[in-house]
Structure formats: structure tokens, C-alpha cells
Amino acid sequence: MAASNPCTLTEVASDADFANHTNNLPESSTLVIYFHAPWAEPCKQMSTVLSTLASTYTATSPPTISFLALDAEELSDVSEHYDVTQVPYIVIQKAGKVLETISGGDASRVRAAVEKHVGSGSGNAGGAGLPPAQLVNKPEGGNAKNLSSYAPSTNDQTTAPEYSASEANPETSKEELNNRLGELVKAAPVMLFMKGTPSAPQCGFSRQT
Questions:
Q1: Which helix (H) or strand (E) holds 32?
Q2: Which residues lie within the region annotated Disordered (predicted)?
Q3: Residue 52 carries which DSSP code?
Q4: How far is CA 130 from its chain centroid?
Q5: Distances (CA, A) of 69 to 31, 33, 38, 163, 172
């Protein structure tokens, strides 16, 4: 039995090629359109991500999913039709209807969006290069520190230790400077760095405190 071929990310070079591809795609097929630009650094990674993602799906006839890549500047009419204002920009559509758009280089969002509308790929080796989807959960209970109601105790310093330019030694070593910085950030649980002094602040934000 012959091995099935994986899908690929196909580069579209002209408006006519794009129209020909979309017109011949069955309404049951999902189309992933990737807008990129050669000068945009995030597009280099996204091109690799989408090529890898495409390879996890099997090429069928008629296709169940198709991946197209377009230069957003070269195919400006297509870009304008999809309201592309930045790259990378991915459009997922079916039967001519846009299902979802993703802007930016978040690979996990792109994969999650494709799998939501199409289902996961075959899980072959090509998928190993995709970054895993990540979920960030808000800490529960009282584990997270809330400083909104913090009030310094009588033992806490109200301001950072004072160091003026006139006291600085021209021969002060880098290690001594690092020690001073360490003392500053550890002086109190909440630290305010300001321009001037507490009695004579020299910028608008400092005066508001």
C-alpha cells in the first residue's frame, strides 16, 4: 500500500493563481491563508511553523484542508480584501467564509485555531517541531501577593538609601556598583525610584506620589 503524502504550504505568486486555487476548492475544504513579507523577521519562524503544521495533515482528493502562502505586498489586492494590516497574518476560511484570523507570530494560537476548525493532524514526525500550546492560569487562593493594600511598617525604610553623584568615587568598581544596586532593590518591599528627592521631586510623576 502506497504511503499517503502530507499537505504542503503552497506559495501563490499572483492574484490569478489565488483565484484559481480558491475557486477550485470544494466548499467542504478548509483554507488556511498565510500573508507574509520577506522583510518581517517573525514571518521566517511562522513559515516554518505552518510548513510543519501542514505536514501533519494528509493530502487527499478532494482536499480537506489547504495551506497557501502569499506575499502581502506583492498581492496587495488580496491583502486589501482580507484587511491585512500587519504580518504574519493568517486567515482560516471555509466555503468563502472567514472563520478566524490570527495576527502575529504566536505559533500555539495558529495551531489551536486550525485544529479547532479542522481537527488535529495525523501526528506524524513533522508535528514534533511545533511549539506546544501553552495555557497560563491565574494563581488560586492567597498564593499571589497583592500589594494594593500594602503599607510600610515602622521598620521599613520609606525611601531608598541616598547616593549622590558628588559622593561617587571615580574608581568605584563594577562590583561595588552592583552591591549598591542590590541594597537599593532590597531596601523595602515596595520601592520607588524618583528624580530628585522626596522633599523636592524633579519630574511630574514623582510629584504625584
A1: strand 30-36
A2: 118-176
A3: H
A4: 14
A5: 11, 6, 12, 57, 56
